[in-house]
Amino acid sequence: MTHSAVLDPAMTAVLGDAKAWPFEEARRLIKRIEKRKGGNDTVLFETGYGPSGLPHIGTFGEVARTTMVRHAFEALTGGTFKTRLLCFSDDMDGMRKVPDTVPDRAALEPYLQMPLTAVPNPFGGDYKSFGDHNNAMLRRFLDTFGFDYEFASATDYYTSGRFDAVLLRAVERYDDIMKVMLPTLGAERQATYSPFLPISPTSGRVLYVPMKEVNAKDGTITFADEDGRDVTVPVTGGRVKLQWKPDFGMRWAALGVDFEMFGKDHQTNAPIYDKICQILGGVAPEHYVYELFLDENGEKISKSKGNGLTIDDWLTYASPESLALFMFQKPRSAKRLYFDVIPRAVDEYLQLLAAYPRQDAKAKLDNAVWHIHSGAPPALETPLTFALLLNLVAASNAHDKSVLWGFIRRHVPGVSPETHPLLDQLAGYAVRYYTDFVKPKKRHRAADEVERAALEALSDALAKAPDDAGAEALQTILYDVGRSVPRYQDLAAKGATPEKPGVSNAWFNSIYEILLGESKGPRFGSFIALYGIPETRALIAQALNGELVAADAKAF
User: Fold this and answer.
1) Are 388 and 526 in contact (CB under 8 A)?
2) Which residue from 11, 135, 175, 361 could staple onto 7, CB 3.0 to 4.6 Å apart?
3) Res 57: pLDDT
4) How would residue 541 be classed by pLDDT, with cut points 50, 70 and 90?
5) pLDDT on residue 308
6) Domain ranges of the chain
7) Looking at residue 284, what DSSP letter applies?
8) Residue 206 DSSP one-character state
9) Does CATH number 3.40.50.620 belong to domain 9-183+243-290?
């Protein structure tokens, strides 16, 4: 996830042909930079974070995707520009409700509407406020994945004066800002709206109150405080913050942000952010709008509903690289994010990683692993797929990855957890994923007469196979047995003849359903090679004796 890799000359020569979406975004950004006046040689990427809760899978996605664009930009520009990634925390926002996750919710009730960095830390420890605690969790979260970033706190930026010049400009151009904002509001909200949110001098709360006076000359605002008295305060020094929509544009103008991506829920507001930025003297950054995730039922994922995966959920069963691949793929398409997508993401990542060394320069630049690993993908050192490991767990009833290693060593001599740490990780993931998600859904079925005869023939054929038969030889046996059964013959298959028909998927589906209790599985010759010929024959015998179906009935 870091952003440092040197391109070889072959890749440099074909950079202009790279089609992956981070390159497309980087090219748009280059056009913006070419129009920029002045001598600024730093390009600023930004992501935003609301610290009212802990970082989540969307936070990972936003930072990972922005990092991919940043690296593509650096590759295209050859180091002509410095780049920075600023992860900005909106920790001066008022606490609108007490989160369900805090230890003592009642203790925080008096601090409602106070800036998050003014709310006591309910978790104890060294962090003085709720906002500080959550900011620390964000930094730890990003550091875990090795992101190269700078952290920024809204409270620090407002109180230190970093935003003062632009806030004073906002007072001067108050009417222009209101002309942008008011048409977006209902009549009732228009009557009380102000882009300025003063911090009450008496209570410390963030106030949503109308302005009685906006004084451009003095750089002050006047409003009725909570006790009813009129109060005048300067807009500088952290005494005032902006509403979230004007705040977006103000931050872009103040910091000179060049690129920021956000979810589709922000898309209708993007023109507002742009106009505010321009009013305040800035040039709106390049945007990238990504689609939001859906749950397994196609409904929008909601933190309050808890109907989506958390980052911890994913990392319990798969690597962060597989999650980064999921984020890389089609970010502008709505995708279902639930547990069933994890195995596919793991194996797709492994396939792409395996393909990378064999690809030409252009294909490497378009390969997701180039972007996931910032141009320096590691060498693949796992000879097995995640799907195959899952089925091995299913057949062996392994409760520990050490059981899997007994099979793995026999299938791939010379490997060990020490020589192949990625494979060792995959074995652990497979055991956990199978136990939690596959095993509860497994339902073996009994074989009918045709299937029984076919499986008996398969067992007999395997008995004649050499002990060291490889996956391809075992796959050939599977095909030969399948094509001998009229039910499974496929004359429409490529290269099929009446003398040597193809084999339909129905043969393999029946094997998966009867032997593994699932509707689909890996290439079965590879499974036999890994699991063992005697063990596979014993599994067939158990299935035909009704033991697997009986075990399901006992378990459920």
Assistant:
1) yes
2) 11
3) 86
4) very high
5) 63
6) 9-183+243-290, 298-372, 386-555
7) P
8) B
9) yes
